[in-house]
Amino acid sequence: METGQIRYNKLFINNEFVEAASKQQFPVFNPSTGLKIADVAEADEVDVDVAVAAAKAAFSRGSPWRKMDASARGKLLNKLADLMERDIKNLAYLETLNNGKTYKDSMADVQASADIFRYYAGFCDKIHGDTIPIDGSAISFTTKEPIGVVAQIIPWNYPIAMLTWKWGPALCTGCTVVLKPAEQTPLTALEMAWLTKEAGFPDGVVNVIPGYGPTAGAALCLHDDVRKVAFTGSTEIGHKILEYSARSNLKKVSLELGGKSPLVVFDDADLDEAVEVAFNAIFANHGQNCCAGSRTFVQSGIYERFVRKASERAGQIKVGDPFDPNVTQGPQIDEPSLRKILRLVDSGKKEGAKLEVGGVRVGEEGYFVAPTVFSEVTDGMRIAKEEIFGPVQSILKFNTLEEVIERANGTTYGLAAGVITKNVDNALAFARAVEAGSVWVNCYDYITPQTPFGGFKKSGFGKDLGSESLNDYLVTKTVTIKLPS
Ligand code: NAP
Ligand code: MG
Asked: Is the CB–ligand 1 distance for residue 217 below 6 Å?
């Protein structure tokens, strides 16, 4: 195989690539140039019906998938991880071409994703219920059963990783899947679909239907044969996903939504280390990260020095072609995203924040934004409240622990938080008090296959990763047997 060829542009249903029933296609772009790189089949309600029917048949009683030993499912997941490692350069190339993240980051994403499949591979035959000593002359046991056909709707910021976070627990537990990738980034999902076939997953277990959210996505979420929706994306659409469930069959829902996560730096921190952690927390993936540390709270004693070093650090980022190994920041995903970032930068300037560096578009081709740092940011400003989803660091000043806990929690979101300090009392007090699903102490974005990830408040509910994610894909059955008295 030649690296970087776009091989697949159709819907993947029942282990075959097929045209959309309507024969419609939609364009897919390279964000580095703004130019079209592919036309991809566009699923609508009719295709959703076909894909869900395939997933339902694959889940039916007596099907090869249902009869398969759990340990054999584990072997398939390990095989899928092997194939990803075999094709890592091709997957990373397509990810960078389509999403704009640096090739180095794409390689790391693919490897981390293969590792996640291996984690879940090991879990397949370790899922079991309890034996319960109950009142009276009877005994109960519980079984954990796969919930059935699951719809999975994912965003464009980590196309392969988000797919893996969703497929790992779904396939581990024995569910069947219909995945809708984001309209911007369908290419690697189709490659991954093909690899599931090569790995040996039976027909209909994995289906991938590129298309648009309000058509294909909504039809999936409203479908009466879908038992669960796993969604990652904006809070706005998260509201809609719950409505779709309420309007249809009350399917189970898990939501991983946005964030405005605080990273708190105390005076006692090693300044250079703190600047570096805070830098990666916000600038990783060009700021297009749901758990980005997008509110950097710095204690007053080191505030000025921190701002100076953080601005210097951001100024060192080389923006440009994500395939260039010297480049550390590629383009934003698309024009609307670029415009939104620049609008919020303008609002920051107008509302009185001090622009230290950046704040402008880079070049006229593609969707590049200069790494941007604002100081003198206050809690009421839009850049301190809204999800920018771009390379914009907002640095706020605080004085005391109590104050910063209050302010860190002063958001409708609750996805993640970080604290940098040498004082273990402050670290633990903050970790206990902050309303966030993940808290990192003296690090940030430390996400592993083993650790559950997911938000509080309007950042959603349900967990990805870890053993806890399996619960979202399982139902518990209680069997009670009367004993002779
Ligand atoms: P989005 O609209 O929430 O998209 C996420 C996924 O939901 C996509 O696959 C999208 O399809 C689908 N979708 C959209 N409308 C839907 C509907 N009515 N029913 C079912 N599915 C639907 O997010 P976005 O437009 O890509 O980005 C907007 C903002 O969301 C970003 O600026 C950022 O603030 C936030 N965001 C958060 C995350 C995260 O990781 N939590 C990721 C991406 C974006 P389409 O492909 O048609 O859009
Ligand atoms: Mg969208």
From this structure: yes
Mean pLDDT of 395-412: 98
Task: Give the model confidence (pLDDT) of 146-171 as tens digits.
Answer: 999 999 999 999 999 999 999 999 99
Find the ligand nearest to 213 CA: 1
Question: Residue 1: what pLDDT?
Answer: 55
CATH superfamily of 262-448: Aldehyde Dehydrogenase; Chain A, domain 2 (3.40.309.10)
Domain ranges of the chain: 11-257+459-478, 262-448
Flag whether pLDDT at 30 surpasses 60. yes
Spacing, Cα 157 to ligand 1 middle (Å): 10
pLDDT at position 485 over 90: no
Task: Compute the distance between CA of residue 186 and CA of residue 389 in angstroms, rounded to an integer.
Answer: 20
What is the DSSP annotation of 223-271? Answer: -TT--EEEEES-HHHHHHHHHHHHHTT--EEEEE-----EEEE-TTS-H
Mean of pLDDT values over 35-47: 98
Q: Which residue among 45, 158, 179, 234 is best mutated to probe the pocket of ligand 1, counting the most ligand atoms within 8 A of its Cβ?
A: 234
Please say if the pLDDT value at position 2 is more than 60. no
Q: What is the mean pLDDT of residues 242-251?
A: 98
> Active-site residues: which are they?
256, 290
Tokens of 71: 């340990």
409: pLDDT confidence band, cut at 50, 70 and 90? very high
Residue 354 pLDDT exceeds 80: yes
Amino acid (1-letter code) at residue 21: A
CA distances from 19 to 13, 49, 94, 95 (A): 10, 14, 21, 23
- C-alpha 213 – ligand 2 centre gap (Å): 7
Tell how many helices (H) and how many strands (E) occur in the chain: 16, 22
Is the CB–ligand 1 distance for residue 210 below 6 Å?
no
- Place domain 11-257+459-478 in its CATH homologous superfamily: Aldehyde Dehydrogenase; Chain A, domain 1 (3.40.605.10)
Protein residue with its CA nearest to atom 16 in ligand 1: 213
Please give the distance, rounded to the nearest whole angstrom, from the Cα atom of residue 259 to the centre of ligand 2.
17
